[in-house]
C-alpha cells in the first residue's frame, strides 16, 4: 500500500447498474486539437456518453471546481452492447476525426459535430451515422490505423471471438483473415511506422504480422483459396516466446526512428523494439496487474508506464525503475492519460461499476498512523548466543560441503527419473557412408525414458531435452497441462553430421506451476553411452596435441576405467595403451598409462577430439580413485584456443557488418516498394521500366540475397 494518494480533479458516476471493461474508455480530441481531449464512455448496456471537462483550479478554496452538468455533452442509448471505441479519420474525403463504435453485431462510424451553446447549458454535440457494417460474427476488439501506409485516412480491423480479423477500408469491406494458432481473441496493436500488427497467440508467443502479407493471403482466400491453405502459408515476421498470458499490448513512439512495443503479462512487463524480436527490458511484477498505459515524456523521450495493481495502487515506471506509486480511490479496469483545456497530463481511470475520475499525483502523505506494536521484553544475551550457534552450524555445513535444505520441497513436488538405455539401436536417420562403418552406424541410436511423477497436481509442466551437437533428439519439448500421477516421455537420441563430440551430457529441464501459483524449475543431467560416440581401435604413436594427468596414487587399469571397451580390441592392445576412435569424424585419441610415473598421457592429432576423452577420463578417475589429480596441457592447445578466438572475433565483426548493410538495403527495398506502389496507384503514364524502379528492385533484391548467403556462412 502506497503512502501517497492521487488528488481528485474531476469525478462522476456513469449511470447505474451498468458494467464496463478495458475497452469502454476512450480519450481523443474529437473536436480538433485546439479543443483538447474529451472522454468517451461506452457501457455494456449500450449507453454512449461524451464528456468535455470544464473543471479548473480555484485559488480561494485551493481545489478544483469538479464535475458540472454541462460537462456531459451527449448521452444516448444505442440498444446494443458497446464492445470497443476508437477514433480516427474514418470517412473518405474528410480529415476530421470520427468516432467508431463496435457493438455486438455492427460497426458504426459516427460524425461528431459540436454545437456551441449561448446559455449556461454549455456546448452540445450531435452524433450522425456516417456508415455502418453488419458483422457476420460476434466481435471482441477494434483496431484503427493507416493500414498499408495510406495517407490522410484510417482503416478498421475487427477481431472476432474466434480470432478472425475482418478488415474494412472505411465504407468498403476488404477481406478477412484467420491467423495461425488462434483459438480466442488476443490483444492486438497496429504500428503504423512499420505497417505491422503485433499480437499474441494461444501458445503465449508474441508474433508480428505485416499488413501486406495479411492482405495478400486474405484476398487470395477471398478469390477462392481455402482457409486452411492460406493460414498455413501465413507466417509472422518475427516471434518471441513470452511464456505467460498477455493482458494488453501498447505501442509508443520513442523517437523519429524507433517505436517501443510495451507488453503487459500476468507476471512481467516487457518492452520490445519494433525492428524485430529484441527485448529492450523486462520488469518482474510482484502483484497482479489489471491494466496499463504507456506514454513518452517530451522532449527527453523517456518511456513511462502506468500499471494498475489489484490493490488499487498506481505504479509509475521509467524503464525498470519504479518512480512513483499512489493509492487510487477505487479499483480501475481502464487507465489512460489525457490533456484537457485547463490542465495537461491528467490520469483518467474507469472502474467496472462506472466510476470515472480524472486525477493527478499528489505529494501529501496519508494521515494513517500504524498502531504501536505490543512491546515485550527481549533477552539480548540469549539472542546473541543463539545467533553465534547458528553461524557456527552454517560454517560447519559450508566446510563439509553440505547444502542447506532449500530444494527438498521442490524435489518432493516433482520427481524426475531419467533412464538412458545402454543398448544401442539401429538408426534409420543416419546414412551409411562406407561399408566398413556400416555395422557400427547401424547401432548409432539410444533410447531415453523420462518419468515424471508427483504426489500433488502440477499445472503447465514443460519438459525440455537438450543435447550437445552433433546429437539430435526426436523430442525436444513436451507440455503436460495437468500432472497428477505419472507420465512417461520417451525420445530417441542419434548423431547427425560430422562434427566432433564435445560433451556427452543430456540436460532435462522441467518447469511447472504448483497449486499455490509458484513457478518452479528442476534440472537433471545424465550421460549418453560412450559407445554411441567412440569405438576401440589400435593406438597411434604420433600426435600433435598432448594432455598429461598425474595422480598421487597407483593407476587404475583401462578395463576398470572403460569396461565398455574391454573386449577383443583391448586384449589385442598393450595393457598400458588404449586407442579410441570417434565414430563421426574418424579421429583417433590414444591414452597411455605410465605405471612408474603415475600419470596418464592423452594424445591425438586433433585437439577438439581430445575434449570428450579427457573429460570422461577425469570423471571416471574421480569415481574409481581417491587420489588428487593434476593436469597439464601442451602449448599447441593454447595456440589452438587463440586461433579459434581470433576466428570467432572476425566472424562476429563480419556478422555485424552484414547486419548493418542488410538494414540499409531493407530500408532501400521498402522505399522502392512504396514508390512502385504509389506509381501504380497514381496510374502514371510512364512504365516502371522507364522509371528504373524495376532495375533498382532487382539489384537490391540480389544484393540482399548475396548478403544473406554471406551471413549464413559467417554464422556457421
Automatic annotation (TrEMBL):
Keywords: Coiled coil. GO terms for biological process: cilium assembly. The keyword Coiled coil applies. Residues 655-682 form a coiled coil. It comes from Vespula vulgaris. InterPro entries: PHTB1_GAE_dom, PHTB1_N_dom, PTHB1, PTHB1_hp_dom, PTHB1_pf_dom. Residues 1-365 form the PTHB1 N-terminal domain. Residues 442-525 form the PTHB1 GAE domain. Residues 637-715 form the PTHB1 hairpin domain. One of its GO terms (cellular component) is BBSome. This is Protein PTHB1. Residues 529-628 form the PTHB1 platform domain. It comes from the Eukaryota. The keyword Cytoplasm does not apply.
Amino acid at each position: 500500500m502506497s503512502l501517497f494518494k492521487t488528488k481528485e480533479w474531476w469525478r462522476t458516476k456513469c449511470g447505474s447498474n451498468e458494467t464496463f471493461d478495458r475497452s469502454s474508455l476512450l480519450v481523443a480530441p474529437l473536436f480538433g486539437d485546439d479543443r483538447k481531449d474529451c472522454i468517451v464512455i461506452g457501457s455494456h448496456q449500450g449507453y454512449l456518453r461524451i464528456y468535455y471537462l470544464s473543471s479548473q483550479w480555484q485559488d480561494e478554496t485551493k481545489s478544483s471546481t469538479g464535475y458540472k452538468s454541462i460537462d456531459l455533452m451527449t448521452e444516448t442509448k444505442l440498444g446494443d452492447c458497446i464492445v470497443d471505441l476508437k477514433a480516427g479519420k474514418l470517412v473518405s474525403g474528410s480529415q476530421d476525426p470520427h468516432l467508431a463504435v463496435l457493438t455486438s453485431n455492427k460497426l458504426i462510424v459516427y460524425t461528431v459535430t459540436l454545437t456551441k451553446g449561448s446559455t449556461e447549458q454549455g456546448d452540445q454535440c450531435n452524433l450522425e451515422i456516417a456508415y455502418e457494417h453488419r458483422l457476420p460474427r460476434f466481435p471482441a476488439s477494434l483496431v484503427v490505423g493507416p493500414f498499408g501506409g495510406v495517407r490522410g485516412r484510417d482503416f478498421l480491423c475487427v477481431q472476432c471471438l474466434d480470432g478472425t480479423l475482418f478488415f474494412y477500408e472505411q465504407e468498403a469491406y476488404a477481406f478477412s483473415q484467420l491467423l495461425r494458432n488462434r483459438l480466442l481473441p488476443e490483444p492486438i496493436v497496429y504500428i503504423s511506422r512499420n505497417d505491422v500488427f503485433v499480437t499474441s497467440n494461444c501458445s503465449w508467443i508474441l508474433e508480428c504480422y505485416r499488413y501486406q502479407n495479411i492482405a495478400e493471403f486474405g484476398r487470395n482466400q477471398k478469390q477462392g483459396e481455402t482457409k486452411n491453405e492460406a493460414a498455413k502459408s501465413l507466417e509472422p515476421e518475427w516471434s518471441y516466446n513470452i511464456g505467460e498470458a498477455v493482458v494488453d499490448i501498447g505501442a509508443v513512439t520513442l523517437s523519429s526512428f524507433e517505436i517501443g512495443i510495451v507488453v503487459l503479462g500476468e507476471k512481467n512487463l516487457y518492452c520490445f523494439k519494433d525492428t524485430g524480436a529484441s527485448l529492450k527490458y523486462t520488469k518482474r511484477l510482484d502483484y497482479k496487474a489489471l491494466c496499463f498505459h504507456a506514454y513518452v515524456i517530451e522532449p527527453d523521450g523517456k518511456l513511462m508506464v502506468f500499471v494498475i495493481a489489484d490493490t488499487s495502487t498506481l505504479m509509475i515506471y521509467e524503464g525498470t525503475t519504479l518512480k512513483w506509486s499512489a493509492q487510487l480511490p477505487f479499483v480501475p479496469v481502464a487507465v489512460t492519460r489525457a490533456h484537457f483545456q485547463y490542465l495537461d497530463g491528467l490520469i483518467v481511470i474507469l472502474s467496472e461499476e462506472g466510476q470515472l475520475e480524472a486525477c493527478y499525483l499528489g505529494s501529501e502523505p496519508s494521515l494513517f498512523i500504524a498502531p504501536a506494536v505490543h512491546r515485550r521484553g527481549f533477552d539480548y544475551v540469549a539472542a546473541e548466543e543463539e545467533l553465534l550457534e547458528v553461524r557456527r552450524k552454517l560454517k560447519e555445513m559450508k566446510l563439509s560441503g553440505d547444502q542447506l535444505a532449500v530444494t527438498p520441497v521442490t524435489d518432493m513436488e516433482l520427481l524426475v527419473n531419467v533412464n538412458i538405455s545402454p543398448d544401442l539401436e539401429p538408426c534409420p536417420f543416419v546414412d551409411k557412408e562406407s561399408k566398413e562403418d556400416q555395422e557400427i552406424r547401424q547401432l548409432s541410436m539410444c533410447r531415453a525414458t523420462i518419468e515424471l511423477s508427483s504426489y500433488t497436481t502440477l499445472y503447465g509442466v514443460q519438459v525440455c531435452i537438450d543435447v550437445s551437437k552433433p546429437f539430435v533428439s526426436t523430442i525436444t519439448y513436451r507440455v503436460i497441462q495437468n500432472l497428477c500421477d505419472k507420465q512417461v516421455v520417451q525420445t530417441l537420441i542419434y548423431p547427425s553430421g560430422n562434427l566432433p563430440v564435445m560433451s556427452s551430457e543430456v540436460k532435462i529441464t522441467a518447469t511447472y506451476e504448483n497449486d499455490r501459483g509458484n513457478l518452479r524449475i528442476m534440472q537433471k543431467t545424465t550421460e549418453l553411452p560412450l559407445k554411441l560416440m567412440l569405438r576401440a581401435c589400435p593406438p597411434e604413436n604420433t600426435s600433435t596435441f598432448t594432455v598429461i594427468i598425474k595422480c598421487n596414487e597407483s593407476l587404475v587399469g583401462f578395463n576398470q576405467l572403460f569396461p565398455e571397451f574391454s573386449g577383443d580390441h583391448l586384449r589385442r592392445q598393450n595393457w598400458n595403451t588404449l586407442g579410441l576412435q570417434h565414430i563421426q569424424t574418424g579421429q583417433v585419441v590414444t591414452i597411455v598409462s605410465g605405471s612408474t610415473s603415475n600419470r596418464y598421457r592423452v594424445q591425438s592429432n586433433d585437439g577438439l577430439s581430445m575434449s570428450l576423452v579427457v573429460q570422461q577420463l577425469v570423471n571416471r578417475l574421480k569415481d574409481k580413485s581417491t587420489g588428487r589429480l593434476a593436469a597439464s596441457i601442451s602449448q599447441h592447445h593454447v595456440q589452438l584456443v587463440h586461433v579459434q578466438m581470433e576466428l570467432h572475433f572476425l566472424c562476429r565483426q563480419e556478422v555485424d557488418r552484414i547486419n548493418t548493410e542488410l538494414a540499409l538495403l531493407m530500408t532501400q527495398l521498402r522505399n522502392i516498394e512504396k514508390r512502385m506502389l504509389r506509381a501504380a496507384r497514381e496510374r502514371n503514364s510512364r512504365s516502371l521500366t522507364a522509371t528504373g524502379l524495376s532495375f533498382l528492385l532487382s539489384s537490391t533484391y540480389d544484393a540482399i540475397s548475396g548478403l544473406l548467403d554471406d551471413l549464413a556462412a559467417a554464422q556457421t
